[in-house]
């Protein structure tokens, strides 16, 4: 397993927690190079979680580029992108870029803790999952109502659909 962390202190903690496990390698620095540098892998399947800090304005675009590189280098990779839900206008372009990623299939699942029009707030978060494992959609359909109820602060909700269907 390869783990990559941008922030030095978090990376140090990650290395400390993973030391002694020879199956785990921890790299420090920007993770955008990972798909190009490490895919394809020898195994027939791979899972990649893209979880940027969203500190830069271009990170949604960089996520879609990373997804395209991942799918281009190893088409069957299960790739999940975590993203914040703040400004719906920014998300529209992100969704369009994801839909044009070339992934064989792409599931979108979102959890809302506030109404989407709440200004200057983290209103929820989402996952875009390329090549989701069999059964995940059904499991999420059972889980998401519970999470929305428990985590919703002013108005919880959820949504799930296919940005790219089979």
From TrEMBL:
One of the record's GO molecular function terms: 23S rRNA (adenine(2030)-N(6))-methyltransferase activity
Pfam families assigned to the protein according to its UniProt record, in alphabetical order: RsmJ
Sorted UniProt keywords: Methyltransferase, Transferase
Transmembrane region(s): none
GO CC terms: cytosol
SUPFAM superfamilies in the record: S-adenosyl-L-methionine-dependent methyltransferases (SSF53335)
Top-level taxon of the source organism: Bacteria
One biological process term in Gene Ontology: rRNA base methylation
Gene3D superfamilies linked: Vaccinia Virus protein VP39 (3.40.50.150)
InterPro entries per record: RlmJ (IPR007473), SAM-dependent_MTases_sf (IPR029063)
PANTHER family listed in its UniProt record: RIBOSOMAL RNA LARGE SUBUNIT METHYLTRANSFERASE J (PTHR37426:SF1)
UniProt-recorded name of the protein: Ribosomal RNA large subunit methyltransferase J
Organism: Pseudomonas amygdali pv. lachrymans (Pseudomonas syringae pv. lachrymans)
Organism lineage: Bacteria, Pseudomonadati, Pseudomonadota, Gammaproteobacteria, Pseudomonadales
């Amino acid at each position: 397993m390869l783990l990559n962390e941008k922030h030095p202190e978090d990376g140090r903690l990650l290395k400390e927690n993973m030391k002694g496990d020879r199956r785990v390698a921890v790299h420090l620095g920007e993770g955008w190079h990972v798909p190009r540098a490490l895919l394809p892998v020898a195994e027939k399947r791979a899972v990649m979680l893209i979880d940027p800090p969203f500190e830069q304005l271009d990170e949604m675009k960089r996520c879609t580029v990373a997804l395209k590189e991942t799918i281009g280098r190893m088409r069957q990779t299960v790739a999940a992108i975590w993203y914040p839900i703040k400004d719906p206008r920014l998300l529209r372009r992100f969704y369009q870029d994801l839909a044009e990623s070339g992934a064989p299939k792409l599931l979108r699942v979102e959890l809302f803790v506030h109404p989407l029009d709440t200004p200057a707030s983290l209103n929820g978060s989402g996952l875009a999952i390329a090549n989701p494992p069999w059964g995940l959609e059904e499991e999420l359909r059972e889980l998401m109502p519970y999470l929305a109820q428990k985590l919703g602060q002013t108005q919880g909700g959820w949504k799930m659909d296919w940005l790219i269907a089979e």
